[in-house]
Amino acid sequence: MTGSDKPPQPGRSPPERHEGSGTSAAGRGRSPSFWRRHRRALSTVLGALLAFGFFYYLLPRIVGLGPTLKALRHGNGWWLALGVVFEALSYVGAIALFRGVFSKPEDRVDWKASYEITVAGAAATKLVATAGAGGVALTVWALHGYGVARTEVADGMVCFEILTYAVYMAAMAIAGYGLWLGVFSGRAPAALTLVPAVFATVVILVVLSMLFVYQPVETFLLRRAQRSSGKAARRWGRAAAWPRALYTGLVMAIAMLKRRDPSLLGALAAWGFDIAVLWASFRAFGHSPPGAVIVMGYYVGTLGNLLPLPGGIGGVEGGMIGSFLAFGVQKSLAVIAVLGYRTISYWLPTIPGAIAYWRLRRELRRAGGPRQPSGPTSRNMQTE
Q1: Could you report the per-residue pLDDT of 115-163, keeping only the tens digit for each?
Q2: Contact of 207 with 162, CB cutoff 8 Å
Q3: Fewer CB within 10 A of the end CB, N or C, for the chain?
């Protein structure tokens, strides 16, 4: 935490100093004002009201969400309500996976903390979209506040991302190859089936290869850093940290697989139920495309999160709509279904995410800032 983030020290706050002695003397006998006595509670309520007003009244007008909400009224309310349930279950899966990776007996990362960090991190990702940078930064800050050692935070974050995106890449490869080979029903444009499937396969193979070649790759990158100078040296140096990080994250993930940790099902639930929201949105406004088409349209569209846009706004919608049009989905259905999905998966969790962030920040302040980690500074993971 920075200096400005340090919690107030116990005891009475020092009296305010004023330039004039008369003013100082006059203020000595006064009791604290109502605002000073209830400042924290009133600030929380005021912040919540401002956030609600911003997200409910102002933000829809800024991004043009108002017309979308009007159009959504023509959809089947039961299917949209089912989509909301699916989105909640998707968050439950992400929370379970997060707790499975980071919770230990000596840590305070329980279900409540896992909920607040996951939901607040999702809200931060919407503000700084580039590959989830905002959510990662908030998660690291929160874990430090809960006393998790820096090495454990780094290793756990890599493990969490590996487990999460292993499902992403595997599903994209299976659906892409399946559509291209005719195993699954639906159109099969090569740019949206074969190319993403090959890309996913390459990513999977490169990451898995770090189990065997991380040391020579790390040595090669370090030598390039030593032979370079300036920005190039710094880039090679940062790249050299990745092989060992991927190796450590893979070891942790394999250890969880070997002990059949039930939290691993959270990765499947997080992606599966979020895709189910898109399916329910299609059903709310018409018929649903084949399952493999929905999966590919979803994953190709979510690559828009890599664009430097707040929450991927515009990039995700455009990617998904364009993908479904290429798969032969009717234009009007694709547009309204994707917008319905984004309304449920993007906008609805934002207010709970903001509230979770405020609660998380208040709790860490009350705890006196980052707690000293107990026990070993890194997880003792074994690859039997």
Answers
A1: 999 988 887 776 654 445 667 888 888 888 888 888 889 899 999 999 9
A2: yes
A3: C
Residues 6+ apart with CB under 8 A from 347: 55, 65
The per-residue pLDDT for range 327-341, each reduced to its tens digit, is 999 888 888 899 899
Full-model pTM: 0.74
The long-range contacts involving 206-209, CB below 8 angstroms and separated by at least 24 positions, are 207/162, 207/246, 207/250, 208/250
Torsion of CA 138, 370, 112, 122, to 10 degrees: 0
Q: For residue 373, is pLDDT > 50?
A: no
Contacts of 69 (CB under 8 A, 6+ apart): 60, 343
Q: 186: alpha, beta or left, given left = phi > 0 and alpha = psi -120 to 50?
A: left
Task: Kindly report the number of other CB atoms within 10 A of residue 231's CB atom.
Answer: 8
DSSP structure class, residue 114: H
Question: Contact 186/290 with Cβ under 8 angstroms?
Answer: yes
Proportion of the chain in helix, strand, coil states, percent, rounded to 5: 75, 0, 25
User: What tokens appear for 281 in the block?
Assistant: 């949105």
Query: Does residue 206 carry a pLDDT above 60?
Result: yes
d(C-alpha 279, C-alpha 273), whole Å: 10
| Mean pLDDT computed over every residue of the chain | 78
pLDDT tens, position by position, 174-191: 999 999 999 998 888 998
Which tokens go with 178?
Answer: 């399946």
